[in-house]
């Protein structure tokens, strides 16, 4: 996909409010919008989380607003004079029904009343109003509340999003670096990992052409489906390490997730067990003109910092031979 120059791009000089713009996906989405000549307002509970983006913006191109999305006055201030809106707010803690279910609807209603041209709501694969997971129910409510208030909004449902600085691959990479043997929860669960830059591109394309993309749901997955076991094995290989991975049975995984203080919540286990792949019932990257990139394109380079001696270490093949002989 060829990007138009900022001077001729549809979003040139548009004012785009990005709720949750200081987060992982937001960082890349904002960069994509800035490169198209847009003015961006990052609305967040902690606006300083986006300060690292300042050097990438021209004078006056980037704004920051403290925003509590549960309060209408705060939403109205963040949406003042905005022409386009992106909602990226999500999480696994707090009042999920309020944050991801009800607040997006109020956000969309205010945007509609203000004459906003396009609205992109980033959800996730697998929203389900009948799910036992609060997260999936909140996502389903959020999508519906947005479309009720702003019928031409675009809904994007990415699978698990990966990138150099994500909290997913790097979590496993850190454990694989340190431990000789690791448990794998949901070893057969299939994930269609999607590259963060591709998701950022999808957000921009949807904003640019609401006539083509508004009112539609897009499921965004990468070009391959990988099991949790395969993901762990690929990370270990990219580090040049030999590790033993222990497939954990579902009952034991469920018990672990139900215990307090564990790194995986009950909701996260429920969602992991179900997997995260494109269903075939919605539009995909193809309708956005984007070809998603595979994990393998980046993994070896990103895992360099986790290898023994980093970039000065042995190659994968020699490192594994050395570890096997030790």
Q: Can you put this structure into words, describing what you see?
A:
The protein is of the alpha/beta class. It has helices spanning 24-35, 72-78, 96-113, 134-149, 169-178, 196-208, 210-213, 228-239, 250-258, 266-274, 285-288, 299-302, 316-325; strands spanning 15-19, 39-44, 62-66, 84-87, 118-122, 154-158, 161-162, 181-184, 190-191, 194-195, 217-220, 226-227, 244-247. β1 (15-19), α1 (24-35) and β2 form a beta-alpha-beta unit. α3 packs parallel to α4. The model is unreliable at 316-322 (pLDDT under 50).
Write the layout of secondary structure elements.
Layout: E1 15-19, H1 24-35, E2 39-44, E3 62-66, H2 72-78, E4 84-87, H3 96-113, E5 118-122, H4 134-149, E6 154-158, E7 161-162, H5 169-178, E8 181-184, E9 190-191, E10 194-195, H6 196-208, H7 210-213, E11 217-220, E12 226-227, H8 228-239, E13 244-247, H9 250-258, H10 266-274, H11 285-288, H12 299-302, H13 316-325
Parallel strand pairs: 1-2, 1-4, 2-3, 4-5, 5-6, 6-11, 7-10, 8-13
Antiparallel strand pairs: 9-12
Helix pairs in contact: 1-6, 3-4, 5-8, 9-10
Structural class: alpha/beta
Ends apart, CA distance between termini:
48 Å
Question: Main beta sheet, described?
Answer: 7 strands, parallel
Regions with little confidence, pLDDT below 50 for 5+ residues: 316-322
């Amino acid at each position: 996909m060829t990007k138009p120059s900022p001077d001729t791009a549809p979003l040139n000089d548009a004012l785009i409010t990005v709720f949750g713009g200081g987060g992982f996906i937001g960082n890349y989405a904002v960069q994509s919008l800035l490169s198209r000549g847009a003015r961006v307002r990052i609305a967040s509970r902690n606006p300083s989380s986006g300060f690292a983006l300042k050097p990438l913006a021209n004078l006056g191109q980037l704004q920051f607003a403290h925003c509590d999305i549960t309060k209408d006055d705060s939403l109205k201030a963040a949406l003042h004079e905005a022409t386009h809106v992106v909602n990226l707010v999500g999480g696994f803690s707090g009042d999920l029904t309020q944050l991801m279910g009800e607040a997006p609807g109020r956000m969309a209603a205010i945007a509609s009343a203000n004459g906003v041209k396009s609205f992109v709501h980033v959800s996730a694969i697998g929203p389900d109003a009948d799910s036992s997971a609060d997260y999936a129910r909140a996502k389903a409510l959020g999508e519906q509340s947005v479309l009720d208030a702003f019928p031409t909004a675009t809904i994007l449902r990415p699978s698990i999003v990966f990138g150099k600085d994500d909290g997913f691959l790097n979590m496993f990479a850190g454990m694989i670096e340190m431990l000789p043997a690791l448990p794998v929860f949901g070893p057969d669960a299939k994930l269609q990992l999607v590259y963060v830059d591709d998701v950022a591109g999808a957000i921009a394309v949807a904003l640019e052409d609401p006539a083509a993309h508004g009112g539609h749901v897009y499921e965004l997955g990468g070009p391959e489906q990988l099991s949790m076991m395969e993901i762990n094995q690929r990370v270990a290989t990219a580090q040049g390490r030999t590790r033993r991975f222990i497939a954990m049975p579902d009952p034991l995984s469920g018990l672990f997730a139900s215990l307090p203080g564990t790194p995986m919540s009950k909701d996260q286990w429920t969602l992991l067990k179900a997997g995260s792949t494109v269903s075939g019932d919605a539009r995909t990257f193809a309708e956005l003109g984007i070809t998603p990139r595979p994990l393998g394109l980046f993994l070896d380079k990103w895992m360099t910092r986790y290898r023994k001696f980093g970039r000065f270490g042995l190659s994968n093949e020699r490192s594994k031979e050395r570890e096997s002989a030790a």
